[in-house]
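Hi R.,

Here's the chain you asked about this morning:
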Amino acid sequence: MRSSFKLKSLVLCTILATSSLVLAQTASQIDDFTKAAKFDDVSEIRDLLKAGVSPNAIDPKGNPMLIVAIRDKSMKVIDFLLANPAINPNLANKSGETPLMLASIDGELPVVKTLVLDKKVDVNKTGWTPLHYACSTGKLEVAQFLVTHGAKVNALSPSETTPLMMAVSSGNDQLIKFLLDNGADLKMRNHEGFTAIDVAELFSKDDIRDGLKSRWEKLYKQPYPGGPKKTPT
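And here is the predicted structure, written out as tokens:
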């Protein structure tokens, strides 16, 4: 019985010690961590982690430090944090954006690969997806990687926007062709009733609009009916 009591006491002390490290994070330490993440200062972050600061610490604006590093392209800090076993690669900011989404929108393919291949981050997050983000800025290589690793080409955002619509708004012809060749559906409409063709019209992408209309006619054997059109419920 004494052995059992000693074991329980040891476990409790370990939990309390761990908790105290987490609670020991001060506003000053968070400020130092934020600056180090912005300016790619691995040495400072290493010291902060040794002092008990969590690698998953949040800055005053609600951004996990990994996201801060990705936004500021602090590659050494990104690699250092991702190598930490305690890092949470899915931790989102206040807007629901994840590290994979922000690496995708910036076209940071090496970071995207590490998150997907090494950290096993799901490429099909509910709502706005990493593929939506990559397509919004025309990041072809990132989009190709995501689709190859299971990203849904016709994923719907909360506004029922598709990656194809985002690609059209970015104006990247090669990306648009890639999505279409991999199953992107021209008939899909967002919550306002717009298709990708209508999006091209809205963004004055005349060449893209005409090309998509031509593809529509070849696929469906009829002229594009126009939009917006609400889908019957």
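One quick note: Confidence is low (pLDDT under 50) at residues 1-23.

Cheers,
M.
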